[in-house]
Amino acid sequence: MIDLQLPFEQLSKTLEQILLNYGFTEERAQRCAFLFAKADLDGVRSHGVNRFFLFLDFIKKGLVYPDKEPVALTQLGMFERWDGQEGVGNLNADFAMNRAIQLSKEFGISCVTLQNTNHWMRGGNYGWQAVEAGCIGICFTNTIPNMPAWGGSEPKIGNNPLVIAIPREKGPVVLDMAFTQFAYGKLSIARAKGEQMDYEAGFDKEGNLTKDPGTVIDNHLGLPIGLWKGSGLSMVLDLLAAVLSGGNASYEIGKSGHESAVSQVFLCFDPTKLELTDWIETKSDALIGDLKSSTTFADKSVRYPGESTLETRNRNLKNGVPISEKLWDELQNELKK
């Protein structure tokens, strides 16, 4: 597939114009489009515009409601619980993290949970949202069952992405990971290109490990990271998300056959309010300095989570955001409808 390189503003504006035809207000269309385009801007193409048409399809099927906004269920000081009303996933998550940031500025620590929300697309967006506000952010979501419990032969648990973000003047540390070896968005891109994964990505129907992305996608049998450890940790995050939000667990989400009405948790820590500023930078710099001093195999390099994001973002702002020509043509056709 040939890549075009488009100005970020052009890409975001194109998505915004399409969303206006799907019941979005101008303000919500602008923010939703920005969050989609920002994933591609930062180099996370598996969870940006590549997911846009699937998102539109969910709107058409009545699984995502563009006009619905979160409604407060519980507000107890630094803890709040909200009903996402099956609204737009990235807007709901953006709202929840912003609420967590506001509460952390008041209390030092905060926890905001969402029930009945939808796929947040690129989870890293909300980690960056936190660090850009000078806060430590932690958030996680459950998903439709798409990997087996360790030893199982059917999808019983979600890959339940986790984001941990720590502010740092020389470059924030932002971990954005799912609990399958490869995110399903990345598997979908590889399948479209006819490529195999570099490492085993999941199981076939006979329980054999496979690098074929199509097999893993069709079976929903992604390989848990860390094998039994990843399986266990993913299950615990699912339970926490369901308990803290009062919403669905992965097995309940799976009953509908669609990944909708999921549960999410957003935690925030304000270093200034908690009096951490005397050492947060020196601790971070020392740890990363030690990490970067590591010897490596062959031509390998050692990077910390999120290290290349700012570099990628600045390059794409200068040269244009890479978008496949085929996908851009599809967006133009959608715009003409």
UniProtKB/TrEMBL annotation:
Transmembrane segments: none annotated. Pfam families: Ldh_2. InterPro entries: Mal/L-sulf/L-lact_DH-like_ah, Mal/L-sulf/L-lact_DH-like_NADP, Mal/L-sulfo/L-lacto_DH-like_sf, Malate/L-lactate_DH-like. GO terms for molecular function: oxidoreductase activity. Keywords: Oxidoreductase. It comes from the Bacteria. The keyword Oxidoreductase applies. This is 3-dehydro-L-gulonate 2-dehydrogenase.
